[in-house]
Specification:
By secondary structure, this protein is an alpha/beta fold. 36% of the residues lie in helices and 19% in strands. It has nine helices and eight strands. The chain has helices at 3-6, 20-32, 86-96, 115-129, 148-162, 185-189, 198-209, 243-255, 279-297, and strands at 42-49, 52-62, 68-72, 99-103, 141-146, 170-174, 232-239, 260-269. It has an eight-stranded mixed β-sheet with strand order 1-2-4-3-5-6-7-8, with helices on both faces. Helix 5 links the parallel strand 5 (141-146) and strand 6. Helix 3 crosses helix 9 and helix 4 (115-129) crosses helix 5 (148-162).
Length: 298
């Protein structure tokens, strides 16, 4: 473990996804204890998308924004909202220079697959269809997310490809949750890693699938054809049960002719980039912003 991160491990509460309400309260309290982001260079707007009026979105617009990102929060698809994602979305908009559209999609277990994907896809279609009104380029739209949100972003690219939906220029997948089968070495071996381990990962998949079999739109690693997808940035953490599936997905994208930037961060654990004082976290967050900036302005 990176020594700067290791010092925080005893302070990190272990999640309990069998009690969603309690976990949501704990996550909100944890995020509220973090330093507030500087939004002085951003215009932040809350609104509802007509195609999905029950789905709130929050738009972060830098001055002279270059392109747009549909951003999907982490939390296993069970916890998280616009407020808990506010620090990450604001920093990403500031670092990338892109307009970030943060999506408050419906959560499991109250709303199982495909509810969250339907919400995200509705926002993507709305953004592409209203790009001119939002003063952005419909040809410079990326999708991205953290953890379960990263899996949703990957699923968005599959759905948009298969349904001839809006063109997606880039996918930004940070520690993505991609494979419900949990058959990789890291998914089986990491049983006591901070924040996310094999046990609560299994509980997350049960909540999201609701007893139904997974499809490639629920678990993108199940897709047999990854050709024709947008270029990707994939980041993985060393002590994360999701590590190996993220790496394997990146390799499969490469083998399918998709350009991939794959970054495995040593000494890190799932979500550890929220510990902003650590140098490795600062590098991780800067790389996400730089990768998106390159993709949308190049």
């Amino acid at each position: 473990m990176d020594p700067e991160l290791d010092a925080f491990v005893p302070l990190i509460p272990r999640p309990d996804y069998t009690d969603p309400s309690a976990e949501r309260r704990m996550t909100a309290t944890l995020v509220a204890s973090l330093p507030a982001p500087d939004t002085s260079a951003l215009r932040v707007t809350d609104l509802r998308v007509p195609a999905a009026p029950d789905v709130p979105v929050r738009i972060y617009r830098p001055r002279a924004a270059q392109g747009a990102l549909v951003w999907l929060h982490g939390g296993g698809g069970i916890v998280g909202d616009l407020d808990t994602e506010h620090p990450t979305a604001a920093r990403l908009a500031d670092a990338s220079g892109a307009m970030v559209v943060s999506v408050g999609f419906r959560l499991a277990p109250e709303h199982v697959f495909p509810a969250a994907l339907d919400d995200a896809y509705a926002v993507l279609c709305w953004l592409a269809g209203n790009a001119a009104d939002l003063d952005t380029d419909p040809g410079r739209i990326a999708v991205g997310g953290m953890s379960a949100g990263g899996g949703l972003a990957a699923a968005l690219t599959l759905r948009a490809r298969d349904q001839q939906g809006p063109p997606i220029r880039y996918q930004l997948l940070n520690q993505p949750m991609l494979d419900d089968r949990m058959h990789t070495w890291s998914a089986r071996a990491f049983t006591r890693t901070p924040r996310l381990d094999a046990g609560n990962l299994a509980a997350i998949w049960r909540a999201n699938l609701g007893g139904r079999p997974a499809t490639p739109y629920a678990a993108p690693a199940r897709a047999t054809d990854l050709s024709g997808l947008p270029p990707a940035y994939i980041a993985t953490a060393e002590f994360d049960p999701l590590r190996d599936e993220g790496i394997a997905y990146g390799v499969r994208l490469l083998q399918s002719g998709v350009s991939v930037e794959l970054h495995q961060w040593p000494g890190t654990f799932h979500g550890s980039q929220a510990i902003l004082s650590a140098q490795v976290s600062q590098r991780q967050n800067a790389e996400l912003g730089a990768a998106l900036r390159r993709a949308l302005t190049g």
